[in-house]
Amino acid sequence: MPASPDQPLRDDVHLLGDLLGQTLCAQEGTELFAMVERVRALAKSGRAGNADDFDRLAELLAARPTSETLPVARAFAHFLSLANVAEQHHRVRRRRDYQRDPDAPPQPGSFDEVMARLREQGVAEDRLFASVASLQIELVLTAHPTEVVRRTLLQKYTRIGELLARRDGDLTIPEERETVDELRREITSAWETDEVRHTRPTPLDEVKGGLFIFEQTLWDALPRSLRALDGALRTHTGRALPADAAPIRFGSWIGGDRDGNPNVTAAVTADACLLARWVAADLYLREIDALRSELSMKSGSAELPSVDEPYRAVLRDVRDRLRLTRDSIEASLSANAAFGTRGELLETGDLLEPLLRCHRSLHDTGNGIIADGRLLDIIRRVHAFGLTLVRLDVRQDSARHTALLDAITRQLGLGSYAEWSEEQRQELLLRELASRRPLIPRDLQLDDDARDDLETFRAIAAIPRSSLGAYVITMAGNPSDVLAVALLQKEAGVAEPLRIVPLFETIADLRRAGATMTDLLRIDTYRAAINGRQEVMVGYSDSSKDSGRFTAAWELFQAQEQIVAACRAAEVELTLFHGRGGSVGRGGGPTYLAIGSQPPGSVDGRLRVTVQGEMIQAEFGLVGIALRTLEVYTTATLDATLAPSPAPRDEWRTAMQQMADAAARGYRSVVYETPRFVDYFRAATPEAELGEINIGSRPARRGGGKRGVESLRAIPWQFAWTQNRLLLPSWLGVDDALLAGDPAMLATMMKEWPFFRSTMELIEMVLAKAEARIAAYYDRLLVPGDLRDLGESLRERLQRTVELVQRVTGHERLLEINHALRRSIDVRNPYVDPINVVQAEVLRRLRHAPDDSLRDAFITTVNGIAAGMRNTG
To answer: Is 769 tagged catalytic?
Structure first.
């Protein structure tokens, strides 16, 4: 046994670092390796408290041409990516060590731990079983404008993780040598791969990247997770997980999210659905082929045909239809041929029925042990993935629907829909929803935007319903925003309308969310259409950009309470959809902590959550990580359903409101009310340069020609501050909040209120990652002299915030109780610092004399810093 549980991680990182060093020597020469070692020594010394060595590091890199410093930055970026792989693998290894120890208690957050605790708390077996069997969790993958790692490199990193896992086994000396050689080859291949995208990815490129994670891990991880859940349920309730239970399903926005992305057209949405079906058919085809090889029995029950090897005969037909489906999709994608007219598998039941017949037959003939192996796994996949893997949401801004209806009413001589009151809009919408005649003539002349939006609704009508999920309305603020989408679906001939999900995200919309839902659910026509179910999305990005993370957290908490109350009063079943990002400033953070700190009654067995960009790889990149992620989403939702946190005391609410108001004033006084702030932001961060590089299909800014903070999308707003490591949006205003609070009450809230504790722990995490010295270096190189005082004042506020947070948490050092994260940050910092130094110098040169080589160098540094920070946008 190793002296420390983290010794294997240190060994892996040391091995990967040595192999990278050998690669540098072999591919680039010993001079680069010597330079990298010199830089590393100065960076580590600077981190150890020798400030002069940081200055020497900066002077060393600034004095050399980009052609010499870029390979240094690349080397550190590659090391950080390799360290990420090693850390992910170590998480899997530690989990396996935990499960291997017969004396160890169940891992916190595991199926066994949570079910045992709930039973001890008095939850009856029947209630526990029913709650597990009825869980409805949907993880919705989204494209990410700051997803910087190319899929080619992700595949290599996955392979490196697999090789590290192989080394943990019982290898012979030749096998160990061969494994290390394979690691060396993968590292060399990664080094020789261009990490720079030279063309902007298309939405369909992003679709393919999103679907890759199913082939990579999720296809195998999901049935394994359900087997583990079944075992725990048997232990704690004596009953098996029903075969049709699908506690976790998957959705996607990739190829359907039109909000601010003109590249997502109706044709893209249709092709995205076909691509998902192709991957599903291909994956099922592999499973059916393997199952046919396995089910070689000579006879079956009366349900099966009376032929030799009846199971293979039944599955042969399934195989043939899957092949036809896959081939038909290929023809549709390449030649715009019609899909669904040649006997393809279109309905889940068509695939499920023969599988269930085989399953029953095996049980009836005494072969249940075989039935409950690969065959049951496939059946469970069908219930979870369907024939589409994911169901695609469509998303658009409410303003676009208003503009479309305005164009229609003007041309029909009805007046200007955009200028009408809410009452006038509802009157038209409800009248037309009840009418049998169409409102929109087929030959109506529309501008390009309006025509594109109308074509999207027509595409929804043409796409098989099982491929589609919800229609999400960005910037929803009134019932008419929801009714408008209902009418446009009707006008487009959507036979089975998509459920309509209003998204409340700005502070103003969050504050009105409860009243908006109350008004909407009072409309009889709408109530009759939703069949007693309503989904509502709350967004974390724009609310944080409006008023800062602290205030946004409280506004989101209250909005959810009000939405829950509105739906309960209307006797409507609610599903809350959380638009969480990767960074703390956009709602990111540990999953269990986030779900457990939601308002009581807001989960209730149902949850939708976005999984964005780099978090897809972080949470699902290795099968072992994916298994733990699926487990935590399941148990956290179960825990929040059966043992929700109590409602906060009135005095806590009062204190929180006072602090939130103070935080918002402090945040907005800087971001929106300081005349020089926007100029400082553009100078001190790579905001402008990020908008020019090929890291996403969506533009960085909203339309309208504005250039202020209000026009910037929330993701690049967070990303820019992450690059210079000031991380300002996640902590600005927290100092004002904590100064407005009573210390004794804050201590009580920290101890007894999960929401407040999780908020403070997330802020503590981001403060541990923030680096005032790096931000100051960017200021020195990039910010005009007349703006530098603003940067100095912000860094002073950062330090004050650290001190105040430590006072509230009682920690002498940030993250002192989270040893793993503290260690990870401390290990990474000496490797991220040099990349920041190179990036600041590259930005200085790029702004003075732009050229393509400098842009490529800048992208390389973006990759490296993102790898070091782990969560970017």
So the answer is: no
